[in-house]
Amino acid sequence: MAEHGNAGPPHLLSLKVMRLSRPSFVQTHPIPFEDDPLLPYNSAILRIAQSDLSSGQDAQPPEAPSADLLNLNTPPPAPPPTVKIRDYGLSDLLTLPSSFGNIYLGETFSSYLCVNNESLAAAQDVGIKAELQTGSQRFVLADTLTPAPAPLRGAPVDQTPTRVPLLPTQSAEFVIHHEIKELGVHILVCSVHYTTNAGERRFFRKFYKFQVLNPLSVKTKVNSLYDGKIFLEAQVQNAAAEPMSVERMRFDPTDLFHFTDLNHVIPRSTSEDPASPLPPTTGRSVAAGLVVGASEDGSIYLNPQDTRQYLYMLQPKRPHDPVARTTPTLGKLDIMWRTHLGQTGRLQTSQLSRKVPVADPYDLELLSTPVKILAEHPFAISVRVHNNLATETLRLTLHGVKSKMSSVLLMGPSETACGNVPPLGHVDVELNLFPLLAGLHKVAGFRLSDLVSGTSREIDNLTEVYVWQAD
Q1: Do 54 and 93 form a contact (C-beta atoms < 8 A)?
Q2: What is the pLDDT of residue 128?
């Protein structure tokens, strides 16, 4: 804390600043002992434990249950509790913090300001201005020095005076709040202005510096698949010095994606196909079940340095969207937590990014396959040839390579001309196949070539099909 002001005699006023924070439990150091009436020192130890205000003993024993007058049966009294809070080193008493403590990003900074007249003379036109200065911004939290603006016509007039007189022993109190959104050093600047009885204007200023810490450590890992799906892994670690309960962990994707929250237990009805995929969402997590490992209210308890992993699956809103395939930004994480005594905090990460995979100029996509395939019976599949280039037209052909095919062979001509495919366009092709054996087989052995550039691409595994034995 530093103090500045105009020179002269001692000031008539003093300023007290106290951070408003939640209390904490009084920690004790109980001495474990055996509660045995046969021991000679048992009664003395029990008296010492009961006389300790922080022992957590009940002041009065519980009342005995009333008798049942209709059945003339009196229920037996409940046994006294055997586990006491003192056995865990805590008590049922609360204590206010003796120091400023730690303040973390996402929490709300609250402070109590008190201007007190400790002299024997009155002070006139007392005003205060409180500002919070960060590395890049300055916020005005309280200001009674600036006159209030004139109200609009018809609006109620604010009768609160901007400056007040303070007689001896009188005080003026203020409470300020600010949501912390930046890391690093913060400086609370408090200025007090007043006028003496002689008409002299005086002021003094105090500075309170504190450090804002990061409560969470977020690490991400991105896996991009060939079909455009993206799996986002987020590891959230409690970097604070106290436990916290994560009440909400929400992923907000960009406009190019919808996502599926894979951290919930999704109950399925008996009429629903168990093999059907999870329903994608458009910006909110699936709320059909609890988070895996969460409590009944859906929160995740994290001790200091504990880590919790979350998984999300992203899919482009438009199938085969070239913009979604090449964008580096995925979305943001919105995290809300609460400490063990109810202090809340909220943190939103910056845009999560990924390393954009190298996109092929053209590729092959499977559209449809038959529901049931029989051995030694031909079947047809539909595929789509894509041109992923935004400025060039390609002349593509699809070849069948018999040496690389499995038990599913290509019927008909081994080369299919797709013609000129425009930029970001596609051509649908139907292929006739013949399965030789029953079982699970992969459809492979295709080559996609561009006649303009002379390049080609091998399609090693287009899909997998299950072939049934014919009757």
Answers
A1: yes
A2: 92
Range 155-191 burial, b when 16+ CB lie within 10 A, else e:
eeeeeeeebbebeeeeebebebebebeeeeebebbbb
3-state secondary structure of 24: strand
Residue 282 contacts by C-beta under 8 Å, 6 or more apart in sequence?
Answer: 258
| DSSP assignment of 101-116 | --EETTBEEEEEEEEE
| Amino acid identity, position 253 | P
CB burial readout 206-220, b (16+ within 10 A) else e: bebeeebbebbebeb
Question: Residue 385 class from Cβ within 10 Å (0-12 exposed, 13-18 middle, 19+ buried)?
Answer: buried
Please report the pLDDT score of residue 461 as a whole number.
86
Q: Is 25 helix (H, G, I), strand (E, B) or coil?
A: strand
Task: Say if pTM beats, i.e. exceeds, 0.70.
Answer: no
DSSP secondary structure code for residue 215 in this structure: -
User: Strand, coil or helix: what is 309?
Assistant: strand
pLDDT value, residue 4 = 63
Averaged pLDDT, groups of 10, the chain, 471 residues long: 67 90 73 70 71 51 50 58 57 74 87 91 91 91 76 51 84 91 91 90 91 91 86 92 87 92 69 48 48 70 89 88 85 89 86 84 88 92 86 89 89 88 88 92 90 87 90 75
- Identity of the amino acid at 52: D
H helices of 273-392, in order, are: 322-326
Amino acid symbol at 68: D
Cβ burial, residue 319 (10 Å; 0-12/13-18/19+): exposed
